[in-house]
């Protein structure tokens, strides 16, 4: 899993077939704060912003300015074991505090 924090427009530029996840918040896991990420289904560039639709339709679309930073994760196809899937298709990784 490769992790980037940068402008959402970078997600649009990296147009290959590797699965991408975008951080959508945090979740408490046994008293520890963990990232909550969702699998990106479609990216819709709209003038000066980008609409992100997620594969899980229960997660609302995210609209972000093209220059706004998001944290996203790209699954390394050569190492699919690097992805850790949690409940409901979310990727959850612990972060040290």
Tell me about this structure.
The protein has one helix at residues 9-13, and strands spanning 2-7, 20-29, 32-46, 49-54, 62-65, 69-74. A hairpin with a 2-residue loop joins β2 (20-29) and β3. It has a single domain (2-89), classed as Roll (SH3 type barrels). It contains 1 helix and 6 strands, in the order βαβββββ. 5% of the residues lie in helices and 48% in strands. The protein has a 6-stranded antiparallel beta sheet with strand order 1-6-2-3-4-5. With 97 residues, the protein is mainly β.
Strand-helix topology:
Blueprint: E1 2-7, H1 9-13, E2 20-29, E3 32-46, E4 49-54, E5 62-65, E6 69-74
Antiparallel strand pairs: 1-6, 2-3, 2-6, 3-4, 4-5
Helix content: under 10%
Number of strands: 6
- How would you sum up the major sheet? 6 strands, antiparallel
- Which strand order does the major sheet show? 1-6-2-3-4-5
Instruction: State the name of the first-level CATH class.
Output: Mainly Beta
Distance between the termini: 21 Å
Our Rg estimate from Cα atoms comes to 13 Å
> How many structural units, i.e. domains?
1
Report the CATH topology name: SH3 type barrels
Q: What is the N-to-C order of secondary-structure elements (H for helix, E for strand)?
A: EHEEEEE
Query: What share of residues are in beta strands?
Result: over 45%
* Oligomerization state: single chain
- Put simply, the count of helices is 1
What is the 3D form? globular
The CATH architecture comes to Roll
Mean pLDDT: 77
As residue ranges, the low-confidence spans are none
Instruction: Give the helix/strand class.
Output: mainly beta
